[in-house]
Design brief:
With 522 residues, the chain is an alpha/beta fold. The protein is 37% helix and 20% strand. α4 (53-60) crosses α12 (291-315) and α10 packs parallel to α12. The longest helix has 25 residues, at 291-315. The structure holds zinc ion.
């Protein structure tokens, strides 16, 4: 007994000299969860219906009530790249889900990579990689420090699995709807591990063929939201991704990854980056006010609870640090807004390109003036500029002046203006978002920002704007060493990466502009 007491005394003395309590609290596993298009207000509106995973995070986690993205455009690739890097697009180079690549002379996606092959999908299809991400993520820092054995990203979308996991990830898996298989890329490995092949051989979507999606609290006789069988009276869901079953596939796959890759059982800290994508597909189709969104949110709570229980059973309670957020929000459906006397409407970006092109043809000479346009980003056709002996900056200035005359356009920036910092000089968050979203070698020639609640979408709804409905997201930390409570001070999602780096005691990711959220650290 005396000897034990002596050893204890030595430990106490040692702990006075070194932060051994903090070291003891280092998680075995970081679970970085993004729910695609999960608006902040979904944590409030449906709170009474959450009793599982989300309830656990909201009750026992550090919950930020005012976490925002500060960049444009608020879209999937940009949110996912920000989450674990702390960088803005102006530094990370991830300026959209896709953009017109001037060198390749065609549109590329944030993760497309012609030098890689898809594994597990259609034979010889091209794969994807994080090669366009210019900065490190938290897990890259862990890997470079030799402090993490396994880092795995999982999502329906390639960008959702690849970008948070980073360059040194052991694997990113996503769902390929050409083959209905979980796939990866030759960037990570030569061939899929046996357990992934097994999942694919079992036919992951087999059990959902012909199934209908009904409300979780449906009463007898209630009509389903949609059906996986086409041709019935009920709306066709379209695809498994556009139902809560897509999230179920992902949660099931995540459990298998944890089990077969031994996540959380190694020395150091493993990382599971999980992005639940189906909320986004559903939200785009029906909008944030539809009952489907409540239903998939409640089901997300249940799925998260299942996953957290599974992890606790596998690696023991108190060993996992969870970070929960969304990659962006979503605007109300314009017609829903109009019906309740709120502003909003639809804009047609192809028609806008036509209007701008006609004006440019009248001023500088005939030609096809744009090579690409997407959610307000317009890419000039430099061949037409050259053919007409025009000055590109002058062409942009004229096009911007015309765009400013179009109804419901709030703001237009040319790439020249952003190169000279005029977005930041605007002095408000809209200009700053345009500036932080601008990376010269990749961004468009014009950034056209509609008024709040106006959008470039012909049906359903979308996101990309700097306004709260698109930029305000949940942010929750939960686990060992986290001080629970609700925090009302304004923070950004860029603060996640430096905070995790501080907790894990590794270097801050290379492009991070965030700050350590020290108020949540015990
Ligand atoms: Zn998204």
């Amino acid at each position: 007994m005396k000897r034990i007491r002596g050893v204890f005394r030595v430990l106490v003395y040692l702990c006075l000299l070194t932060p051994c309590l903090a070291a003891d609290k280092k998680p075995k596993l970081v679970v970085a969860v993004v729910v695609d298009q999960f608006r902040y207000d979904y944590t409030l509106r449906f709170r009474a219906d959450y009793h599982a995973g989300l309830a656990r995070l909201l009750e026992h986690g550090a919950v930020f009530a005012d976490a925002r993205y500060m960049h444009l455009p608020t879209v999937t690739a940009v949110g996912h790249s920000t989450f674990m890097s702390g960088a803005t697009p102006s530094v990370s180079g991830i300026v959209g889900n896709d953009w017109f690549d001037r060198t390749a002379n065609h549109t590329v996606t944030s993760v497309s990579d012609e030098t890689t092959l898809l594994l597990g999908g259609v034979p010889n299809a091209k794969g994807s990689s994080p090669s366009r991400l210019l900065v490190s993520t938290v897990s890259d820092e862990l890997k470079m420090a030799g402090r993490s054995r396994k880092v795995i990203g999982i999502s329906i979308k390639d960008r959702g699995s690849i970008l948070p996991a980073g360059h040194m990830a052991d694997a990113a898996y996503w769902f390929d709807n050409d083959s209905n298989h979980f796939v990866s890329s030759s960037y990570y490995m030569k061939e899929l591990p046996g357990w992934v092949n097994q999942v694919n051989q079992n036919g992951p979507i087999q059990k959902y063929l012909g199934v209908a999606w009904s409300a979780i609290d449906a009463k007898p006789g209630d009509k389903p939201f949609c059906s996986m069988a086409a041709g019935s009276e009920v709306r066709f869901c379209g695809s498994i991704e556009a139902t809560p079953f897509g999230n179920e596939l992902l949660e099931d796959f995540a459990e298998k990854a944890i089990e077969h890759e031994g996540l959380g059982t190694h020395d150091g800290t493993d990382v599971l980056a999980l992005s639940l994508s189906s909320n986004d597909y559903v939200g785009h189709a029906v909008g944030p006010d539809a009952p489907e969104v409540r239903d998939i949110s409640v089901r997300t709570d249940i799925l998260l609870g299942k996953l957290l229980d599974f992890i606790d059973a596998k690696i023991g309670a108190g060993n996992t640090l969870v970070v929960f957020t969304a990659d962006h929000g979503v605007a109300p459906v314009p017609e829903v807004n109009q019906a309740r006397k709120m502003p909003g409407g639809r804009l047609d970006s192809a028609a806008m390109a036509q209007t701008l092109g006609n004006a440019l043809s009248a001023r500088f000479g005939q030609g096809d003036w744009f090579v690409a346009e997407n959610y307000g980003y317009f890419f000039l056709n430099y061949a037409t500029v050259k053919k007409n002996n025009a000055d590109a900056a002058e062409v942009r200035r004229v096009a911007a002046d015309v765009a400013r005359t179009i109804p419901h356009i709030a703001r237009v920036y040319t790439s020249d203006a952003l190169l000279h910092g005029e977005g930041a000089a605007s002095g408000d968050f809209v200009g700053r978002a345009a500036q932080l979203g601008f990376y010269g070698p990749r961004s468009g020639d014009l950034v056209v920002i509609p008024e709040p609640y106006y959008m470039f979408a012909s049906q359903g709804t979308t996101h990309a704007a700097p306004f709260s409905y698109d930029s305000h997201v949940p942010l929750i930390f939960y686990g060992p060493g986290i001080r629970s409570g609700v925090y009302y001070q304004p923070v950004t999602v860029n603060d996640v990466a430096p905070t995790l780096a501080a907790i894990l005691e590794v270097e801050t990711p290379s492009g991070s502009v965030g700050r350590i959220l020290s108020m949540v650290l015990q």
